[in-house]
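Below is the data:
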Amino acid sequence: MSICIEKNENLNNTVHDLEQTIRKDVSKEYSNPSVFRNQLNEITDKMPPVLNVFEKAFINYEKNKQDTEAQSILNTSKNSLEKLITELFMLENNIDKNTEDLNANLKLLYEEIDILKKENKKLKKTYNQFESTADASDEMLGDFQTIYDIRYLKAWSISISLIIGIYMMITIFKPTTNTVKK
């Protein structure tokens, strides 16, 4: 009995830990996908103008490699393009990190669920044993009640039969007194 109580307390602790894990505010721990989508949209919106500027600056620079202004514009547009590529790379890293963290937490949840499923199977088995024992006890109690009822009726019928038998014996074997008239 104490083993069952200890297992039940352990199960309650495990369930409590699982509830705490689930109740963590996911929106605070993980970035919302719409945030990533918005950042990606911002980068893709910036990309065409920067590419156009870079393309024009590259053509102007290739036409006249000695022109320092064309070289300066090319370097500026190249830096802008590299900045966008860096932002895109950082966004990819953030998404990957967020996905890895989410997968790790999901793995922990699945492991805890498996542990709880195993514990639940054990508890169901124990419950079924207790229930079958209780059912057997109820059947035995019902059987004893039937036996008691039969014996009770038998005892009363014997008692009534004895009383009737004694009465009949008394009436049959009653000494008759003959009184003679004088």
Observations:
- The CA atoms of residues 117 and 123 lie 10 Å apart.
- Residues 68-172 form the longest helix (105 residues).
- The chain has a mean pLDDT of 83.
